[in-house]
Amino acid sequence: MSSPSAPGATTEIWRFEAIGTRWEVGTAHALTAADRAAVAVAIESFDRAWSRFRDDSVVTVLADRGGAVPAPTDTDLLLSRLTEIADATGDAVNPLVGGVLSRRGYDAQLTLNDRGAEPAPAWRDVLSWTSDALSLSRPATIDVGALGKGRLVDIVHGVLTERVAGPLVVDASGDLRVSGADLRVALEHPYDSTRAIGVVTVSGGAVCASAVNRRRWGQGLHHVLDARTGQPVRTIAATWTFAPDALTADAIATALFFDGGSEIAHRWGVEWVRMTTDGRVEWSPGNPADLFRRADTVAS
């Protein structure tokens, strides 16, 4: 997804790096030091719970020894939504895919050293949670990447909504949430970053994108793996989703790489566009984007 533009709406842009990605926050007036500190605290709290890339996170502790820990904030929200996506995709999406990603080289050190494919654990036999505890019956790596960045975008948006007035855009490199601004967003072609397959104007809510040309390495490896096989997806090149919140949009952007994704998108009321690896474009009946390619497929 190309950089969005909202002329005259958000004249102040705060750029920073967090959770391994580039962020841009657009507001009508410059954020104070206290505003920025509040965002940093929220991001640190989420990252310390859910990151598999830091050695002091809850996820890493459980990956090392299993057992039970106090449930971090958002445990039920994240894992319940992941359960629905797993059910819809026949476990192609699996909350314990983190170990498979690490094995294929997308590990905490970003070694990019591929040690071969293997299926993710049968997660329903291993992972459980209550309002008080998050538990693994044996060591395994929880990965909430299917929707975690979207949830963090929502968190940052919520923190700033309580602190600043006027239009607000929170953009975490392809996952964004907008309020009070008409934002024009280009849908970047996954094989040519200088081109777009369409544009969408967002007045409120979220747009999320995912593509196999991001986070690529080795011999055709990328970050979207089928957890049942440990192999990268080969049929879908990119997805774009439009929803009221970024968690929902992010989750469906992941689900659309697999069979069952369009069905759960419909159940959740999410509109979408996706491109296949052979160049076809598909979209949901209520898709709000203006597409430059209209000779392909409308999903029912």
Commentary on this structure:
With 300 residues, this protein is α+β, with helices and mostly antiparallel strands. It has 7 helices and 17 strands.
Helix content: 25-40%
Nearest-angstrom radius of gyration? 19 Å
Tell me the major beta sheet.
10 strands, mixed
Q: What's the total count of β strands?
A: 17
Strand content: 25-35%
Uncertain parts: none
SS-based structural class? Answer: alpha+beta
SSE order, as H and E? EEHHEHHEEHEEEEEEEEHHEEEE
The end-to-end span amounts to 24 Å
Determine the number of helices (DSSP H or I, runs of at least 4 residues): 7
Shape: globular
Average pLDDT over all residues: 93
Summarize this entry quickly.
By secondary structure, this protein is of the alpha+beta class. The chain has helices at residues 33-50, 58-65, 75-88, 98-103, 148-161, 246-255, 261-268, and strands spanning 12-18, 21-27, 67-70, 127-129, 133-136, 168-171, 175-189, 192-211, 216-217, 221-222, 225-226, 231-232, 236-243, 271-276, 281-283, 290-291, 297-298. The chain is 26% helix and 31% strand.
